[in-house]
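Below is a complete specimen:
___
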Amino acid sequence: MTEDVPRYTAREAIALVTSGFTELPVPTSPVPTSSVHAGPAGPADPTREFGPDGPLSWQGYDASRARAAARTGEEESVVCGTATIGGTATVLISFEFGFLGGSLGERTGDRLEAAYGYAREHRLPVVSLVATGGSRMQEGMRALVQLQRVARQSTLTREAGLPQIAVLRDPTTGGGWATLGAGADVVLALPGAQVGFAGSRVRPPDADPAAYTAEAQLAAGAVDAVVPPAELPGLLGLWLHLLSHPSAEPVPPPPDLADTDLPTTGWEAVGNARSPQRPRATAYLDAYLARRAAISGDRCGGTDDGMLCGFGVLKDDGRTVAYAAQTGTATRPAGYRTAARLIRLADRLRIPVLTLVDTPGAANDAEAERQGAGAAIADVFGAVAAARTPVTTLLIGEGGSGGALALAAPDNTWATPDSYFSVIAPELAAAILKRPPEEVRATADQLRIRPQDLVDLGVVRGIVEPLKSQP
């Protein structure tokens, strides 16, 4: 930790995001569970007691707990309760790093399990303000298996269709990062926070400390945003609003922003779609959504600036919509994996999806192949095919082969007048057919790639009308 990175107490972190907090009752006895201490004989006895100096009889452990309690005013490394953030009621979990490094022990597991159970019972989202060094070594393996317990609670909450948001404070390492942190639907982090599976005392001596920061995790696709403390309440409130408003109805496609005539030839359609003056995804999102918040990264080490993903509020009716939008570049594997993550999250939360298709095709360089381009595209095809929430697609520019089709809804795709969709770019089609360059234009006509051709072929439902001017 550097001097300019504050370490908030659990209560100070709570005060950053809400002015009202009601603590949940502390479990008076261990919460029955089949996911902890299970062995050949079956689940552990839910009436277990805490012995002197913990399960390992670690000499001085009780005294260490007593000193930690006196120093922090807390009885355990986590505080759990309910709060309203930006108008949305939520279960709020906050770690106290001053209590034995915010470590997870059995009592921590009891509190976390009770908090998650309360969230499911009352249909509330879960926000975790994480600051932890990992599992509590004074409790040995009994502490480590709490990660399985937390993971199960997170999974049950996910299956219940409730959102989970993590805010990473300084530091977030070990099992806390690998469960409550990285396992959340949306991961926010405070600037400069240490974030990584390896804590500062167990890293290789030659490890670059810059790799273990919130900013590095953002660049690696593991964090959605690094948020200054002053902006955290507003952004957290927006995220809770966005993720807590399901809808069963598909969203309409955005109106056309260019107001151009339909092309008379296939090559004209290509020229319209490739025009530098054509409206791009950002313009469509700005015109369509009142507010939006972005997710970033594929959770596998990569990001792609050419794929915009997130959630927003429709200007027309205030509904939440998830969006995955290509920006006219060749989409990289990380972009496809991020889009698949977005679509699956929206599907689980029952939020309709809008995809904007605009790419000359998938990136096909050697590095893209090494990053698993084929598997990443297949992942998006699968996410769209399996989605139970409605998906709406608007083709706003180039539709280059399978790299574009992966994002398209099979029965609800629309097109703008300045777009085209093709099995392959006309130039490449001519090359494959061993035609001279002067036949590229004729090849474009043969491919029938104009918006009106796509309607005739049954590939798209229709061509969207221009944005109407306001009276």
Q: What stands out?
A: Confidence is low (pLDDT under 50) at residues 32-47. The first helix runs from residue 10 to 17.
